[in-house]
Specification:
The chain is α/β, with parallel strands linked by helices. The protein has one domain: 2-enoyl-CoA Hydratase, Chain A, domain 1. Helix content is 48%, strand content 16%. The protein contains twelve helices and ten strands. The chain has a seven-stranded mixed beta sheet with strand order 1-2-3-4-5-7-10, sandwiched between helices. The chain has a three-stranded mixed beta sheet with strand order 6-8-9. Helix 1 links the parallel strand 3 and strand 4. The longest helix has 17 residues.
Length: 275
């Protein structure tokens, strides 16, 4: 097995036709720092260029999968944009829209192996891959509407994941937490297994997929992605990024965010969600 580090928080393993990208910042609950975002992006580039790799598994070495954006929002890309132009629109586009589109457009099959929390932007990394296998302790939440006063993530996936606007509306507008079983029932994920069986299940799925020719897998995935893009998913991700930037400049949002910061609440703590 070949192993490479992409930055301090992303490990990459290549073994035969399967690559594993491991999020590894347990001290910060795998929060999406700038370094982690670009580490994942670089790891995907490595897997794309390696013609031996047919399938990629995205997993975590922390207590949970990924806790979303770092709570402080302290990103170099944001600071540079603010200093130059007074907004973070281009900075958030660079950091959160562009890499997410890289994951969306990644040509080879991907599997998310999810345990524990998958919150905010972390829920996107858990749900955007082609298949998602979750352990029974996994849960999913997009807390931004209630907690931070933002309309959702920069790349809103939920309308396309649910393919049901009433379910998507309740999930987003109430910052609802979904258990693994509820996510399975809603069609957001593929399988729920015991925690002890999570890794073996993801590995078995990857091995089964890898039996097909690599070119065939790329073509099959391309057909699926293009069907979704014909329904507007890629454009919708771009629009949601723009709406987040617009709302960020409004006074009621800024007041809400200031109150949350003053209370020293993490986004998940401020959603009034009893789950």
């Amino acid at each position: 097995m070949n192993e490479t580090d992409f930055g301090a928080y992303v490990r990459y393993q290549a073994e035969g036709p399967i690559a594993r990208i491991i999020l590894d910042d347990p001290q910060r609950s795998n929060a999406q720092s700038s370094e982690m975002v670009w580490g994942l992006d670089d790891a995907l580039t490595q897997a794309r260029r390696d013609h031996e790799i047919k399938v990629v598994i995205l997993k975590s070495a922390a207590k949970g999968f990924c806790s979303g954006h770092i709570p402080t929002g302290d990103y170099p890309e944001f600071h540079a944009n603010l200093e130059a132009k007074g907004t973070v629109w281009e900075g958030q586009t660079e950091l959160f829209l562009t890499p997410m589109l890289t994951l969306w457009e990644f040509p080879k099959p991907t599997i998310a192996q999810v345990h524990g929390y998958a919150i905010g932007g972390g829920s996107y990394w858990a749900l955007l891959p082609d298949l998602t296998v979750a352990s029974e302790d996994a849960y999913f939440q997009m807390p931004l509407v209630q907690a931070m006063g933002l309309p959702g993530g920069e790349t809103m996936l939920e309308p396309w994941l649910f393919m049901n606007w009433k379910r998507a509306a309740e999930y987003l507008l109430t910052s609802q937490t979904l258990s693994a079983a509820e996510a399975l029932e809603a069609g957001l994920i593929n399988r729920v297994v015991a925690r002890d069986d999570l890794e073996s299940t993801a590995e078995e799925l990857a091995a089964r997929i890898a039996n097909a020719p690599g070119s065939t897998l790329v073509a099959a995935k391309t057909a699926i992605r293009r069907a979704w893009e014909l329904m507007g998913m890629r454009m919708h991700q771009q629009i949601s990024n723009d709406l987040v930037a617009v709302v960020s400049g409004h006074r009621d949002f800024q007041k809400h965010l200031a109150q949350m910061v003053k209370a020293r609440k993490k986004p998940r703590d401020a959603t009034h969600d009893d789950v």
